[in-house]
Amino acid sequence: MANSPSSPSPVIRDVIAARVSRRELLKGGLASGALIAGGSFVGSLFAGETHAAAALSTLGFPELKRVYDKTHAAAEGYETAIVARWGDPLAAGLPEFDGNKVAAEEQEKRFGYNCDYIAFMPLPKGSVNSDHGLLCVNNEYISPNVMFPGMTEDDAGKTMTREQVDLGLAAMGHSIVEVMLKDGKWATVEDSPLNRRITANTEMVVSGPVAGHALMQTSADTTGAKVLGTSYNCSGGVTPWGTVLTCEEGVSDLFGGDPKKAPTADILDRYGFDGSDIYGRGRFHDRFNIDKEPNEPNRFDWVVEIDPYDPQSKPVKRTALGRMSHEASTVVRNKDGRIVVYMGDDDYFEYMYRFVSAKAYDAANPASGKDLLDDGVLSVARFDADGTMSWLPLVHGRGKLTAENGFADQAEVLLKTRLAADALGATPMDRPEDIETNPVTGRVYAVMTKNKKRDESKVNPANTRPENLWGHIVELIPPGGRGPDADHAADKYAWDLFVLCGNPKDAKVGATFHPDTSDNGWFVCPDNITFDPAGRLWVATDGANDFDLPDGVYGVDTEGAARGLPKLLFTCPHGAEATGPCFTPDGTTLFLSVQHPSEDAESLDKAQSLWPDFKDGQPPRPSVVAIRRKDGQPVGA
């Protein structure tokens, strides 16, 4: 079977090679960017020809030379500005930020830590304004080793004080801040009534098939319909009705206790719970101790919907979207009006998912989006070697998803999403991260960041390299046509491998970037991606530091002669990850999160960079950066 982890890679190489043609490569067709695992780019077909792709690239900026030092850098002709930093005030009257004296209560009113996904929500609501809006930013986790003096990463869970633990609860989650562009510079509106923090202490509603289920009930919430807080908020999405989706990406190491003794030990094991409690929450809060609250873990790892325009609204955990280490929740309004959500489960050998709503969204009536994500079909992806992929419905009563196999009802199918996907034979992927749709072509791009654990016996058609340290990007082609004609609700798609990442000069890596890729243009470990209004792909990386390279942002054409040719626009400071790229509607500003600067240091006193403030005695501060052309034209044009 093509989706079997034991499929031999020589067969895969033969099948994929057979699908490649020079004509398709040139026109950017289905087999464009196809590869031979462990071999060279099929662009060797161009041997002896003059490559004009660099000149034909639609990316007009002069490529940045890689810079890996204490600060960030951008390509010539571009300027950058810090828009929001950890600790910046989101309410009037707060004292100047001191990273050594932040109290948990005060942190609830300040911009959160380790920024990740960014959504720019125009003001007024419903407009396409590009100079006034809300930045909705995930605050994924904390880095105690560079947040608290004298602490290392290994001892945080055992030595963090109650005050430090509570600060961590308040620093994670999500930040909403009003921003305005004045004279070419972005600034926050410090006293905006729309500014808001959503943290691990914020009360939320549970909706959908799992709401009220016995496995969601705790001593603090016997209804199973209310949850306190969200954590590990990674990527996300934006709905057509003006809400933001934030993804809980695995909370297994936030809980103490012994998961092996819990009534749901099999579920906890499949979701990676080991009682590690890396932030010490379980020492002070019973809800994070599995021994005392065995159902509390079930109330996390969901997609959370937030209305940023209504600061009084409660966030809602949408259980119909499944339970996993959600990386993305990219929303598409299909041509029949139904809402489609693409999601990745970011862990080794996990799967890609898609949700299709039962009802259509009426754009003339935005209120029709309310609770639209509570009813629909969640499916998991299977990739076959013939270039087709199938969406396998995770519906109770179908196939192996029955009570006899451990799924009592649809709620249990969703609570045990990973186990249900296992049962259907989905294709294990190399850590599925962001999944985004090209607004011009309608094609879907899914990022596999890396998988060092895959050996030769476990390669499959969509994950062709053992010990994949470099990552790759998969291209999905829905039927129906380009752009708005693409049918994102179809049961079957075509697919291809867009690029395999890594140094193309190292034959052992087998990278498949365009032959004209420069020494500065190739990248490793793609993580978050986005598209500009022109349909160009922008890739933010996480993991280049392991290769003694900076993480950064690269633009890539997906069509034409320059398809698969990346160009480097921006590099992060030492130890930091580039994540959450997001454009304003007119494409003139690219917002980017610079996450965990200097996190690779053993402790704060050994940090190689105190970015972005560079103040002695103050810790580095994760921040949102705005990247703009100096002449005000669209980024990348």
Blueprint of the fold:
Layout lengths: L8 H10 L3 H6 L25 H4 L16 E2 L3 E8 L18 H4 L7 E8 L9 E8 L4 H4 L8 H4 L2 H10 L1 E10 L2 E4 L7 E3 L4 E5 L18 E3 L4 E6 L5 E5 L16 H6 L32 E4 L9 E3 L11 E4 L4 E7 L7 E9 L15 E8 L4 E6 L16 H6 L1 H8 L7 E6 L6 E5 L23 E6 L14 E9 L25 E6 L5 E5 L10 E5 L9 E6 L5 E7 L5 E7 L27 E7 L8
Parallel strand pairs: 8-13
Antiparallel strand pairs: 1-26, 2-29, 3-4, 4-5, 5-6, 5-7, 8-9, 10-11, 11-12, 12-13, 14-15, 15-16, 16-17, 17-18, 18-22, 19-20, 20-21, 21-22, 23-24, 24-25, 25-26, 27-28, 28-29
How would you describe what is shown here?
This is PhoX family phosphatase. It comes from Mesorhizobium dulcispinae. The protein contains 10 helices and 29 strands. The radius of gyration is 23 Å and the shape is globular. The N terminus is likely disordered.
Keywords:
nine-stranded antiparallel beta sheet; six-stranded mixed beta sheet; 29 strands; globular; disordered N terminus
Question: Largest sheet, described in full?
Answer: 9 strands, antiparallel
Alpha-carbon distance between the two ends: 44 Å
Structural class comes to mainly beta
Helix count from the secondary structure assignment: 10
Low-pLDDT residue intervals, each spanning 5 or more residues: 1-51
What is the average of the pLDDT values? Answer: 92
Shape designation: globular
Order of strands in the sheet with most strands: 14-15-16-17-18-22-21-20-19
Assembly category? single chain
What proportion of the residues is helical, as a percent range? under 10%
Gyration radius (Cα, Å) is 23 Å
What is the beta-strand fraction? Answer: 25-35%
Give me the count of strands: 29
